[in-house]
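This protein record is not my work; I was only asked to verify it. Where you disagree with what is written, explain briefly why. This is what I was given:
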Amino acid sequence: MSGKLRASAACLLALCALAPATPALAQVSFPDIEDEVMCDTCNVPLNIAEAPRADQLRREINKLIARGESKEQIKLTLSERYGPAILALPPASGFSLSAYLVPLAVAIGLLLLGIVLLRRWRRSGRGGQRDEAPLDDEDASRLDDELKRFGR
């Protein structure tokens, strides 16, 4: 082999080694997908479902894996056949996006409410000072009499 041919072969080999694997070549395994698919009779993830229907779905997924489909293709196929409820996570688009945004908004709202209430609580208890008026002489003597009566 000539020097140029060797250098070209080495460069080609290096490029092939550095090139990322294409999604079609990346093989998905059953455990990768079973926790992302729901059993449509039990309404639990497939990895913990024990119904006969769950076994049917497992066989169907294994057939799709054997065909060489990617994880996304399998989820799309199942979603088209059985509806979006077959997936454990709702799609992050349209109305289903609210499943992700509402809990986040509630958490932020509760955090802000906690901050406001904490500030008010700290402001009201500053230095042990209260906004109460001092007792007049008559009330003070009546309080002293009551305290003596109860032995304090």
Summary: The longest helix spans residues 98-124. Confidence is low (pLDDT under 50) at residues 21-25. The radius of gyration is 35 Å.
